[in-house]
């Protein structure tokens, strides 16, 4: 099988959500192809990456074998389109990890070769612009990271309800999912953690809501802290909000900025609860990161968190904007150690049973094999 793999970034943006998914898909297709003796070759087209040797790409992504070809375009969409028009691919399948690359896929594929496109969230929750409409017509399969993402895309673009689609929940990288966990230090105290970018266009994540109720939470759970990890242009506004409420000077709310992975893992180990009562998460890998550390989550019923968190079993769910319900959920978990321990254990067990990178890879493979069984058939040689 020959795959043409189109992505926004693969090597040069190692911490982004879409590059993470792109790398996982390549690793998993390679792994499962080897296990099932399906010959696999692939070319990678990366819109924003700088030029890299294919062997370096394999090393950075964690692949056993380099791609046959690694083409990068330094952010030039016109350059990518022109290359696709010149170099009609001999691939059996064209896969894009962003619908903005649909026009490239249409130019690149040979006649009757299927195109698969992956939906993540906010990029598709709107009426598609003209170039993306052109790119998505003729797509043979849409794969979405959640039922919420797919449903919201179709609400905005109902003309694509007839396009075949599959939901493939994401998974946490195997090393993070299976890492041993230790009980929090005795001096850890009560704390809630939220992790995510702090940009004005992502105010839906719940930072302001958590800060606004924190004095109320502390009246019932004295000493409870709120740790905020992440950075962005909206951070000064949240810091000002916390300062107005008297939460900065006493350390009740702490802004960590962006921190290295090892420091973040240490915070997950020390925290009591992970809380991100968002209304716009297409999936939310951070919930899985917390769950893998044995930490129960508080999420929203108004986005894909409800597909990750089982209310009352692995965490608690509230309506976005329900400040009283959010405060009640935090106080309940802060006040009942046995309850939160039970939820945390169940949350970790659910990650290991359904939400590792290997589980995600199996879902992707099955979706592609159903679409194109001949290309995914094992070698008879």
Automatic annotation (TrEMBL):
Coiled coil: none annotated. It holds the Pfam family Glyco_trans_1_4. InterPro entries: Glycosyltransferase_grp1 (IPR050194). One of its GO terms (molecular function) is glycosyltransferase activity. This is Glycosyltransferase family 4 protein. It comes from Polyangium jinanense. The lineage of its organism: Bacteria, Pseudomonadati, Myxococcota, Polyangia, Polyangiales.
């Amino acid at each position: 099988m020959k795959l043409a793999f189109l992505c926004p970034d693969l090597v040069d943006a190692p911490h982004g959500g879409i590059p993470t998914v792109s790398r996982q898909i390549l690793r998993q297709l390679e792994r499962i192809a080897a296990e099932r003796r399906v010959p696999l070759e692939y070319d990678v087209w990366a819109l924003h990456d700088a030029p890299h040797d294919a062997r370096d790409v394999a090393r950075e992504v964690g692949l056993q074998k380099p791609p046959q070809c690694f083409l990068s375009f330094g952010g030039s969409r016109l350059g990518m389109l022109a290359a696709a028009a010149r170099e009609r691919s001999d691939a059996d399948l064209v896969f894009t990890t962003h619908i903005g690359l649909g026009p490239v896929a249409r130019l690149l594929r040979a006649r009757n070769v299927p195109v698969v496109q992956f939906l993540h969230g906010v990029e598709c929750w709107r009426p598609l612009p003209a170039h993306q409409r052109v790119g998505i017509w003729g797509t043979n399969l849409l794969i979405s990271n959640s039922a919420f993402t797919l449903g919201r895309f179709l609400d905005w673009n109902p003309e694509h309800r007839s396009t075949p689609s599959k939901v493939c929940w994401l998974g946490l990288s195997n090393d993070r999912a299976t890492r041993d966990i230790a009980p929090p230090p005795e001096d850890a105290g009560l704390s809630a953690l939220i992790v995510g970018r702090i940009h004005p266009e992502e105010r839906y994540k719940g930072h302001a809501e958590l800060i606004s109720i924190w004095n109320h939470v502390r009246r019932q759970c004295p000493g409870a802290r709120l740790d905020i990890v992440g950075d962005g242009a909206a951070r000064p506004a949240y810091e000002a909000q916390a300062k107005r409420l008297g939460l900065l000077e006493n350390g009740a709310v702490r802004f960590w900025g962006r921190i290295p992975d090892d420091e973040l893992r240490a915070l997950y180990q020390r925290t009591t609860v992970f809380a991100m009562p968002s209304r716009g998460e297409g999936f939310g890998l951070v919930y899985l990161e917390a769950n893998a550390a044995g930490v129960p989550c508080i999420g929203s019923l108004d986005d894909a968190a409800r597909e990750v968190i089982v209310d009352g079993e692995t965490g608690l769910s509230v309506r976005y904007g329900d400040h009283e319900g959010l405060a009640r959920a935090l106080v309940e978990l802060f006040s009942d150690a046995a309850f939160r321990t039970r939820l945390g254990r169940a949350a970790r067990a659910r990650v290991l049973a359904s939400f590792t990178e290997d589980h995600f890879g199996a879902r992707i493979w099955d979706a592609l094999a159903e679409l194109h069984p001949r290309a995914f058939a094992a070698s008879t040689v």
